[in-house]
Amino acid sequence: MAAKSGPMVRINTELKRFAANPPEGMSLDLEKTAEDAKTWFINVKAAQGTIYEGEEYVLRVKFSDDYPFKAPEVVFVSEQVPCNPHVYSNGHICISTLGEGWSPTLNIQSICVGILSMLSSCKSKRWPVGNDTYSKKMKDKAPDYRYFNGTYNDGAC
């Protein structure tokens, strides 16, 4: 039996931890995730008392062969995408930990907590500046965390 690669050992360890102790309001879709351990599907239920209360979403997390030295790709893939100043209507998320703020010491738990915090602290539902242009340009493409608001930058919306 071949030894598992370094990234797969880390991904499987994180998978077990996440399944056993997900952030509040999140759960791993084990059936979809079992198809490919490098692609996870996470169900998100918005927190009570927020403008998103009662809404549910799905995140897709894709790990590259460079994980954990490269951030995973994390996007909303459900029909309903949260209308948020840091989320484009195509599901791409503008949060520093998925771009220039990524560190190999971070994990999926910390990314998910950041996303929940981003949603919970939002006071008004609106799309980011440049949403239409970005969403059209990046339709069916992986997020480019350098390209937000119509210009290349450090990944901050």
TrEMBL record:
It comes from the Eukaryota. InterPro entries: Ub_conjugating_enzyme (IPR050113), UBC (IPR000608), UBQ-conjugating_enzyme/RWD (IPR016135). GO terms for biological process: protein modification by small protein conjugation. Residues 6-157 form the UBC core domain. It holds the Pfam family UQ_con. SMART domains: UBCc. CDD domains: UBCc_UBE2W. This is UBIQUITIN_CONJUGAT_2 domain-containing protein.
